[in-house]
Specification:
Layout lengths: L1 E3 L9 E7 L6 E2 L4 E6 L4 E5 L4 E6 L6 E3 L3 E7 L3
Antiparallel strand pairs: 1-8, 2-4, 2-7, 3-6, 4-5, 6-8
Length: 79
């Protein structure tokens, strides 16, 4: 499953990756925090939309990401 940066707020189109809570190969459950993002006004965590294994992280800490960009890939159902 492609994990995309969700809609943040009216007028906010991008934010910066602050900190990854997971590494490639980590097992996650639905709702687990994946990454902390920072806007000019707030920071927030992006939760995992599903259970599975983080197979690929596509953006690095410090990168700017736009709403709708794929930030990581989770392989569902893998142990």
């Amino acid at each position: 499953m492609e994990v995309k940066l969700p809609f943040l707020a009216e007028g906010v189109e991008s934010c910066t990756v602050s900190f990854w809570h997971v590494f490639e190969g980590d097992r996650v459950e639905e709702g687990d925090d994946l990454v902390e993002m920072q806007t000019s006004k707030a920071s927030f965590n992006v939760p995992s939309p599903c259970a599975g294994t983080v197979s690929e992280i596509l953006v690095d800490e410090g990168d700017e990401v736009r709403v709708g960009d794929v930030i990581c890939i989770i392989d569902e159902g893998l142990d």
